[in-house]
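hiii, so i know i said id send this last week but things got crazy w the move. better late than never?? heres the sequnce for the chain we talked about at the cafe, plus the structure i predicted for it. fair warning i was half asleep when i ran it
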Amino acid sequence: MAPPRGRGPARPRGTATRPAACAAAALTVAAGLGVRSAATGEWAAFAGDALYTVLIVALVAAVAPRLRPAVAAGTALGFSYAVELFQLTGVPAALAARSALAPLVLGTSFHAPDLLRYAVGAAAGWAVYAGLRRARRPRAAAAG
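okay and structure toks below
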């Protein structure tokens, strides 16, 4: 059966989400590196931690584009919390002594305020992802 007139072939759900999520991830990395190089102090730490979780939201959306935004944000928040709690073991600090990449991905030491910052990042990631999905949702034809 041919698709209705004026519409192209049906695409699988989530195919437009993946490229957008990858672009969002790249922009988030750029923003994080910019904050890291241009700012210092508590504001830079807050922004960096929040952006870390925004990046995870984008990566979750890229890997599983059919997930609802709340599930993607919750997954990212859980991952961020797990990484922060993993720092209590001392393993990330030991890895940081051997790798320049390890502290960027795993951090080095537990810092309780980071948990709030991750929640802010998850909320921001959810808001952007939900807004983009809502904007792409097909509009119902006007009755009349």
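btw The mean pLDDT is 88. thought thatd interest u
miss u guys!!
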